[in-house]
Amino acid sequence: MKKTSLEQLHREHQPDAIEKRLNADNNPQTISDAVLGAIDGCITTFAVVCGAFGAGFSASVALILGFANLLADGFSMAVSNYEASKAQLELREQARRMEEEHIDRVPDGEQEEIRQLFQMKGFSGEILEAIVTTISQDRQLWVETMLVEEHGLQKAEITPWRSAGVTFATFLLAGSIPLLPFFVGGLTMRWQFIFSTALAGAVFFAIGTLKSLVFAKPILRAGLGTLLTGGAAAAIAYLTGYLLQQSFGVF
């Protein structure tokens, strides 16, 4: 992780720079949606490929099952992410309405909650009372403080449709890569599987690498970690297909 220079840190912590940063609009972050979609998409289709190869199915069967799972699971994951994001927004809005009602009906009790919350942070005496007075004079600040401090609901810019769209797009993009070798004619199923494995491994490692660049983590460790996760899922699928074929002779 590259450290920021002391000179740069001083510039970033000048009063005007701080004010500009704090007042800037918070754009919705979709990196987690992209990583989730890409990893799950690649695992989903490559697991189908491994299961089909382990069971001795033909390349056409692996391709059909792979794309069927790619589209169905991608849609399912996008819908699930949409509903989860929407539920998070609805939970915060419900808590907001409840706090506004409590402020209207029992303002003294809500002030006491503010008092005790900041008392637990180490404030006391006149400073504590000044904090309570300042917060309770601004209704919006009062509500937001209760949402964060009492309910643990941080303010976040969430767009359910954006999250769902990013998840679906990255799921399809990463998930289609392990299927590409099965479009190449003239290759045996074995070689198609080998090339698919190489592509899937490259995708897993690339996702881990990109994740490391975003979150300033060691590149090799992040890449290998994601690769091992995908590899473990693929191994389970292969063994399942192989054992079922050996046990029941499924073709």
TrEMBL record:
Domain of life of the source: Bacteria
The keyword Repeat is assigned to this record: no
Alphabetical UniProt keywords: Membrane, Transmembrane, Transmembrane helix
Transmembrane segments: 46-72, 164-184, 190-210, 222-244
Primary residence: membrane
Topology in membrane: Multi-pass membrane protein
Subcellular location: Endomembrane system
PANTHER family given in the database record: FE(2+)/MN(2+) TRANSPORTER PCL1
Record-given protein name: VIT1/CCC1 transporter family protein
Organism: Pseudomonas zhanjiangensis
Origin organism lineage: Bacteria, Pseudomonadati, Pseudomonadota, Gammaproteobacteria, Pseudomonadales
